[in-house]
Amino acid sequence: MGNKPFHYTALTKEKDLDTLISEIGDARVVMLGEASHGTSEYYTWRTAISKRLVQEKGFNFIAVEGDWPECYAVNRLVKGYPNAGSKIADVLQVYRRWPTWMWANWEVAALTEWLREYNNQRNGKEKVGFYGLDVYSLWESLDQIVRFLERNDGQAAEAARLAINCFEPFNRDPQTYAQATAFVPTDCESEVVEMLQKVQQQRTFTDDPEQDFNTKQNALVAANAEKYYRAMVRGSSESWNVRDSHMMETLDRLLEFHGPEAKAIVWEHNTHIGDARYTDMADDGMFNIGQLAREKYGRENVKLVGFGSYQGTVIAGRSWGAPMQKMDVPPAVEGSWEEMLHNISTDDKIILSADLKNVPELQQRIGHRAIGVVYDPKYEMFGNYVPTVIPERYDAFLYFEETEAVHPLRMKNRGGKEPDLYPWNY
């Protein structure tokens, strides 16, 4: 391939992002990926990119691969809503569900501090939001709905209590619920759907201008989470698709809520934001939010930016719910996308997909590293590389030669170990 088969921009300082900002152009949605959920550089550079998109291109909010109730607490903090808390590290303690380090870390604390300072100089709709797109928070969302509606809407609150009561025999354990519905033709779907309908009919007025949206979003999360957990026990790609469909639906709702000119930044794993049609995920009937956004808004209006590295360290667990550990990430395997970039140069770099069109090796699938919250470096070569057509999966890619682990805030997981229920850990 020669020493430098395609153009790239060396990445050493924030000014070097000019290449990427120019490529983003007038896109309405920018999705920023990560090759792991525990790498400091991915968070730090996504923050740098997000700042410029907010300041220079008027982006309205950041939506992340986190649960709605917890992220909404951060949204309240950065927008300065009453009784939202004042100490960032304290507010980030809301992230108690394993893996806590994904959002309860010092890199996110730095982003939160910047958002708060930026918003302090702005009024109302000019403030930049922070939201969660994920679907796991079934019970947390139900609890929030009941607490709020008991003060505001008795009829809708009763529907929410019925939904919670339906789940009570399962001890708030999604695995118990999912397994029970697999063998007995009874579930809580009708109760959750009725609650969703009741909540959608009511309107609330509080000192939080987003409370109405928040309540209805929690109801949507509960409905889709119930569907997700039922699909999970069947062990097919259906649960993945339920999850990414929910994330896309939430993104749609947020864009609509923020107005016809609204622009969104999305932070998620590469496996979610990189178009699934150009990976082996498509072979199993799976799609993701990156693909759905391109299909809905048009490829010219959605920019997908992948992230990856050659070697370093990462925070992850040996199994689902296991204690977080700082682990070594070995050099990328031979023949992978990451090894190709390493062999070209050891520079950190920005690569635009437009500059890869004439690289024959990249017009077909090539191994591309993906590390989840569950990781064991000894077995990396057997399951941590996603066959990918790089120039089609992404519009741009940020590569780091050596990365270090994210810096978690120290805390205990709520309720101890989570059930080993999740086959997809990205």
UniProtKB/TrEMBL annotation:
* Keyword Transferase (UniProt): yes
InterPro entries from the entry? Emycin_Estase, Hydrolase/PRTase-associated, UCP036794_erythomycin
Q: Spell out the molecular function terms from Gene Ontology.
A: methyltransferase activity
UniProtKB keywords: Methyltransferase, Transferase
Q: Which Pfam families match?
A: Erythro_esteras
Q: Which domain of life is it from?
A: Bacteria
The name on file for this protein is: Protein-L-isoaspartate O-methyltransferase
